[in-house]
């Protein structure tokens, strides 16, 4: 079953949990500095490193072979970013059958591991992402600095390269016009 068709823990409020890890290979410029052929080379290296990963079978999707509507559909299901869908040259997507694991290759970073589960599942999503990341890190040299952590194209991802989020259904806050008040309060403590 696809992740977006299920109802997970606290599913009446928490629609989904997402954990994302951004990684780059040590010996290559960030994807924005690579041409299509170099992106294909980086993608090939990452796919080779995952070729013996059996815990979550992943299908290789050549983004250039997808129709524009197919790419938009993947973005609407939150499996890829809109930017990834709009420029497919040299990019690949590794996707699990249940679509709960997607790995974008040569998006903003060389490797963008994303795990999405229905409901509140932060620990489970992190564990899945971390297993994939650990498998890759045994075979690849990531761009890493002792003081800064994992080096990423966007400074906001620098360090752990981790983003964790939950999508909430909060209709009462909207109906009472309290959403903006809550959003302001949440941003003051460092959340978005």
Q: How many helices does DSSP assign?
A: 6
Sequence stretches where pLDDT stays below 50 over 5 or more residues: none
Helix content: 25-40%
Percentage of β-strand residues: 15-25%
Order of helices and strands: EHEHHEEEHEEEHH
- N- to C-terminal separation? 29 Å
Q: Strands of the largest sheet, in order across it?
A: 2-3-4-5-1-8
Anisotropy-based shape: globular
The radius of gyration over CA amounts to 17 Å
Major sheet summary line: 6 strands, antiparallel
Number of strands: 8
The pLDDT mean sits at 90
Overall SS class: alpha+beta
3D structure, described in words:
There is one protein chain. By secondary structure, this protein is of the alpha+beta class. The chain is built from six helices and eight strands; from the N terminus they run βαβααβββαβββαα. The strands form two sheets. Strands 2-3-4-5-1-8 form a six-stranded antiparallel sheet. Strands 6-7 form a two-stranded antiparallel sheet. A hairpin with a 5-residue loop joins strand 4 and strand 5 (111-118). The longest helix is centred in the C-terminal third of the chain and has 18 residues, at 122-139. The two termini are 29 Å apart. The model has no long low-confidence stretch (mean pLDDT 90).
């Amino acid at each position: 079953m696809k992740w977006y068709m299920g109802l997970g823990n606290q599913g009446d409020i928490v629609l989904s949990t997402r954990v994302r890890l951004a990684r780059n290979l040590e010996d290559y410029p960030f994807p924005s500095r690579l041409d299509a052929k170099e992106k294909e080379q980086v993608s090939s290296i990452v796919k080779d490193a995952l070729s013996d990963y059996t815990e979550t079978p992943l299908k290789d999707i050549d983004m250039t072979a997808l129709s524009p509507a197919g790419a938009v559909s993947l973005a609407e299901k939150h499996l890829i970013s809109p930017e990834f869908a709009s420029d497919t040259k040299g990019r690949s997507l590794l996707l699990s059958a249940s679509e709960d694991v997607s790995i974008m290759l040569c998006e903003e970073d060389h490797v963008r591991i994303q795990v999405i589960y229905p409901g509140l599942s932060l620990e489970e999503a992190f564990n899945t992402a971390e297993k994939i990341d650990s498998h890759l890190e045994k075979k690849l040299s990531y761009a890493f600095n002792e003081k800064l952590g994992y080096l990423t194209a966007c400074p906001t991802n620098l360090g752990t390269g981790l983003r964790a989020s939950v999508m909430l259904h909060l209709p009462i806050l909207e109906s009472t016009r309290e959403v903006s008040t809550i959003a302001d309060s949440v941003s003051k403590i460092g959340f978005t």
